[in-house]
Amino acid sequence: MSADEYDAEHRPPALGSVVEEGRGSLPFHLIHGEALVACASWALGEAGVMPVDIGTNWAGIVDADEPFVLHDALCPMTPASFIADCVATAVEQDRIVVAVRPVTDTVKEIDDGFVGATVDRADLVQVASPVVLPARVVAGLDGFPSLDFVELVATLRAAHPVELRLAPPEGRRVGDDEEIRVLEGLTRGEWRAGDLPGT
Q1: How many CB atoms lie within 10 A of CB 75?
Q2: Helix extents (H) in the chain
Q3: Mean pLDDT of successive 10-residue segments in the chain (199 residues)?
Q4: Tell me, what's the pLDDT at 111?
Q5: Terminal CA-to-CA distance of the chain, rounded, Å?
Q6: Neighbour tally for 142: CB within 10 Å
Q7: What superfamily in CATH does domain 3-190 come from?
Q8: Which of 7, 19, 80, 153 places its Cα 20 to 30 Å from the Cα of 98?
Q9: What is the pLDDT of residue 189?
Q10: Domain extents for the chain?
Q11: What sign results for the dihedral spanned by CA atoms 123, 176, 154, 87?
């Protein structure tokens, strides 16, 4: 069932956090006049996810018996509908759902310190956001293995089935101010002053 088929009353309950740790000051840079972390938090709430602090006692998270959503502050324009769809899929299939984007940079093999052949990008993806853990997976963990999404997903994939979902272009991860400006241009028509609660 897609997110469009879920209204606010029928979305599965979920807990979640916007991750800003280990990302320097970039989550507090502005896009459309708002901090990246604020935009990501707004999307999480609009997706029907109950926000909790990343440092919340793990036993309390397990006791809630709900999926847990990790949303990267550096993917600030990920649509709420896409986040909700990932949560719905994680619940329906009882498996981890990880958002990804295609790799667009040229990737080369390195052999004994020398640059080798170009790697076919068709089978490569980069981790985006969100990462949704079904309640069963949450119950089997003692906490998050890592808040670095690449490390987290690698650890999870070693132990659990993972579904990769292609995030929309506006769900791309930014790494510097130039990439923020590109994302801002991409999403200009979708953003209006006052979209964030309280603005």
Answers
A1: 28
A2: 36-46, 58-64, 80-93, 135-139, 149-157, 177-186
A3: 51 95 97 96 96 93 97 97 96 97 63 59 75 97 94 95 96 96 88 47
A4: 67
A5: 32
A6: 8
A7: Spore Coat Polysaccharide Biosynthesis Protein SpsA; Chain A (3.90.550.10)
A8: 7
A9: 73
A10: 3-190
A11: negative
